[in-house]
Amino acid sequence: MHTFNYEFYIFLYDDIQNLNKDQALKHYIDHGMNENRIANKKIYDYFDYYHYINTYDDVKHLNKKDALKHYICHGIYEDRIYNKNFNWNFYINLYEDIKHLSDQKSALLHLFTHGLEEKRIYNKKIYDHFDYNTYILTYRDIKDLNKMDALKHYLKYGIHENRIYNQEYYDLFDYNFYIFLYNDLNNITNKYEAFIHYILYGINENRIYNKDENIYYKIDNVILSVSYENFDNHFYTHFYEDLNIIKTKKDAFLHWMNNKDNEERFCNETIFNEITKFDCSFYLKLYNHVTKEKAYNHWIDIKNNMNDMNDMNDMNDTFITFIIPTIGRNTLINTINSLNNLINKNWKAIIIFDGVKNNYNINNDKITIVEIDKKGEQGKNNKAGYVRNIGFNYVTNSEWIGFVDDDDVLSNNYICKLKEEIELNEKIDVCLFRMAYENNKILPNNYDKNISKCRVGISFAIKSYISKNVLFSNNQFEDYYYLKELEYKNYKIVISPYVCYYVNTTKYEIYEKFNRIYI
Known about the structure:
The protein is built from 22 helices and 12 strands. The chain folds into 5 domains: 6-123, no CATH class; 126-202, no CATH class; 215-276, no CATH class; 280-313; 315-518, Alpha-Beta Complex (Spore Coat Polysaccharide Biosynthesis Protein SpsA, Chain A), CATH 3.90.550.10. The chain is 40% helix and 13% strand. 29% of the residues are buried. By secondary structure, it is an alpha/beta fold. Mean pLDDT is 83; it is low at 308-316. Strands 3, 4, 5, 6, 7, 8, 9, 10, 11 and 12 form a 10-stranded mixed β-sheet that branches. It has a two-stranded antiparallel sheet with strand order 1-2. Helix 19 (332-340) links the parallel strand 3 (318-326) and strand 4 (347-354).
């Protein structure tokens, strides 16, 4: 008998909303199974919610339940991605009895109706993390196998022979934390056994193997991350009145994990303060509220009522125009999405297609499209500095000009932080934000007290009048030389403490503050 979850089943299908539990089960047996309807809550648990809402703009506003419902009713038939780690070719090649399946939809339907119930492996992370080269060099009896067959060998034989799957991964695996966090693993008595459980089941079940592993969640359409180590259980259980009965960090963390995708609760006071800018202590005194949660909710209600009026006032003039050179990379859509996600909507953008045709269907009155011919050496694309200089000519009625490359993204609070810097010092002409790159290294970092070659990037904004006086040079380090010329000409520059620019679409926001430096 397949696993049947009543609440999940009636939620998913509108035509059975009025059935009680017995009626719903009978409907599933008589009709649902034949119609490939889904009643297993594991399908909900394994759904890659954050990837889904970040990939498809039309579902960004949905919570996890509604996003899954959209996927079941529409997404699966549109070849949308259920889980970024589900690779249907990997799935069918791992099991001989389903090799006949010919497309993603049929493989997913098998996973939903049989595979999850049978605890089959579907997560390609298991393949990606498998140390194939070490495996075939260590065990000569399988030296002629390709990676897929070697993995099959490991899953069938190697596990029981204590063979090595990935030594580095094994060393990172925190056995004591893993069995501490999950009560159903109390019967596991050693690290190897726990690691095998993680490989076979834990990866599929999105279990956490290390207290420093990042878990992603969403609040107000901002994707955030936190680890068990950084989870603030005192804040979590004291800020929300209904959680006061929770006494341990483990129980608080598990509650948050089980509910984070639908309740959007804060779990760290630092992030709460950074995102909301809400002064609880002041508000409690002012309005005599009993708890921080009630004070915050009261403030949100007032803020929402003021939004329409503030938007009208803010949109009279453009605050900032972003110049984006592009050679038609497919990552440009991520750059555009980061602009659309900016909290402050008072922006415009100029996208300049450098020697290529506009291959995007960009329908946004905030964005101006420009196409230019290749004029680089030997018919190559132009240098980025040359393209940005062309962009200057299209900027109109904008107080500031910002720059973004077509494979990078901005944090959603970029404009808010720029305005904060202006409020602190209204004389600044240039704001250089910190840039995250290569596994979230930071440029400039806290050791950089000035503008140095190879220590800065294009993560800055300038007052628009500067574009009339200073142009980019046409060389490899045009951003550095531009900043140095501005420094030489005595424009006021601030190196902001905030990371607001992410190279190569870094997956999570950095809320660490650095030093503020005036040049």
